Amino acid sequence: MTSIRAAIRMMLIPMxxxxxxxxxxxxxxxxxxxxxLGINNKTPEVDxxxxxxxxxxxxxxxxxxx
Length: 66
Prior knowledge:
66 residues, mainly alpha, two-stranded antiparallel ribbon
């Protein structure tokens, strides 16, 4: 199983996100991403990151593989 938080961290690498907002252990950073990620980032990956952020905030921590 893959940690969703780790997947989000990896997808954020090429994106314009302040370093302090890349800490996925803080739910406040996840909520910040929900509000602000699409403002400076117009790539298709933004939709995936926002989907994953929503999953984590609803309590899902791992992706099922397969």
